[in-house]
Amino acid sequence: MANHSDTRSSLTRREFLAVAAAAVSSTALGQALQPAIANDRHRPRFHLMPPSAWMNDPNGPLYWRGRYHMFYQYSPVISTMGPKYWGHAISTDLVHWKNLGIALAPSPGGPDKNGCWSGSAVIYKGIPTLVYTGTTWSSESESAERRKGLVPERQMVAVAADPNDKNLTKWTKIPQNPVLAAPPAGIKAIGWRDPALWREGDTWYMAIGSGEIGKGGMALLYSSKDLRAWAYLHPLATAKPDPNIDASRPWDSMWECPDFFFLQGKPVLLVARGNGYLTGTYSDHRFQQQPPGGQIDYGSAAYAQKTIQDEKGRRIWWAWIHEKRTTEAQAAAGWAGVMSLPKVLTLLPDGTLGIEPLPELKVLRITDRKLSNQKIEPNGPFLLRGFDNDCAEIETEIELGDAHQAGLRVRSTANGSEQTLIGYDRDSQQLFCDTTSSSTDPQTEKLSPPVSGRGIEKGILELRRDEPLRLRIYIDASVIETFANGRVSLTDRVYPANTASLGIGLFAKGGTARLRTMTLWNLTPISNDRLTSGAELFHV
Ligand code: FRU
């Protein structure tokens, strides 16, 4: 399953995914690949990933006795359609992670025999508890089931086998499973998954992602006192009519991975589609959408956002960063999928959401280089001397001046035969990441929808008059996460073919901009083997 669903495609998502799965279905990974993976220059060094194979959505997360537990959709095969397990990692600072192996595995013959899909983690009566979607989807049975209107997805519960085990490595599925067996009568659900939980007084509420063909996405609301007996209430929220929804593309009508929380007392609903967030009102347990709403991340590589309120009361956000190269290239690499950096969401005075990197990430900074007060001219120097880096954080403030576009060039060769541009377009008021020339590798060029290849990712950023462009950019091998003016983020992937594509420069087009300040920090990896150890814990 699972990819961003906003591409224009003649294939349905599911058709595409079946093709992609077929392409690599024999790619079960052995330990032999681990050293190659640890030395893969495209593999990030300060992002969370399983030691090998496939990762998609963040699941959980959970804070328990001094440790953060992050779970994620894991598959031993490189395929969106592979059987899904819950991979598990822990951290004390949300920056350094250690993989602990598999927390949940499909039970042969059970209601989750074909996958333990996405869900949440909560503490109930002192017991860490996982609530997730079990599935029996299979490519053979799917079309017959769909014809009968069946959705073989159901909601399941697992509890920590030993809450005193500080790593929470063992989980027990409860005998009452599934705790919910089918979508409510009267709703022609095309999917019914990814439970998100919260508590009001002594009552638990759960939103389940769903949707009806042609109508659009919805989050269905349930309540329970004990996480076992659930009552369906009504839709928590439904998509507004959208002229862009094509009824012939069912996956466009589905809200995957809802997430619901309050920021400074205001309700916020996240849906995976387009990394969107909805703002509005919440009364009688109904969420009514009202402007502004928006998009948290403008990159199509980010999907399936998930949050937690941390011990300091902050709302922390993660997403799955998928690959932007062919499934064959992913299979050859032996790994696919990366967890985004943790990002802090805030409510801004105009009612939109702010997004910044987690401040604790500063612990990764080692050495720095600084620049200040420089003209950026269209025919200025192509690269900055001594700034080459692909494991770095850059913070910069740029005045647009009379330029139409200005920003940074990263992962560049000396002559720009490979280069990635991150910048601002004044005329369209858009932040952009241009990967058109990021790689000469044909495996990054024409990808089957919905995975997009090289191109320009962009989104609105309205700068006030005289407001400079403020960028924070994290470059971690093939992952680039950009934050602009504390208001938006843009996640992208690049796979330069040339090992020398490490250069960093400034660019301006159509006029002269000015660099106020720029600092580049060399960052330290969070492990010494690109997080490849512990592979044996993931064998299935
Ligand atoms: C989103 C998603 C979820 C599902 C999971 C399966 O990417 O499709 O809706 O639970 O992936 O891995």
Structural class: mainly beta
What general form does the structure show? globular
Question: What percentage of residues falls in helices of 4 or more residues?
Answer: under 10%
Mean pLDDT: 92
Outline the biggest β-sheet: 6 strands, antiparallel
Question: How many helices does DSSP assign?
Answer: 4
The low-confidence parts are: 1-28
- Strand runs, count: 33
Strand content: over 45%
Q: Between the first and last Cα atoms, what is the distance in angstroms?
A: 20 Å
- Tell me the Rg in angstroms: 23 Å
Distinct ligands: beta-D-fructofuranose
What does this molecule look like?
With 540 residues, the protein is mainly β. The chain has four helices and 33 strands. Strand 9 and strand 10 form a beta hairpin. The radius of gyration is 23 Å and the shape is globular. The two termini are 20 Å apart. The structure holds beta-D-fructofuranose (FRU). Beta-D-fructofuranose binds next to strand 1, strand 5, strand 9 and strand 17.
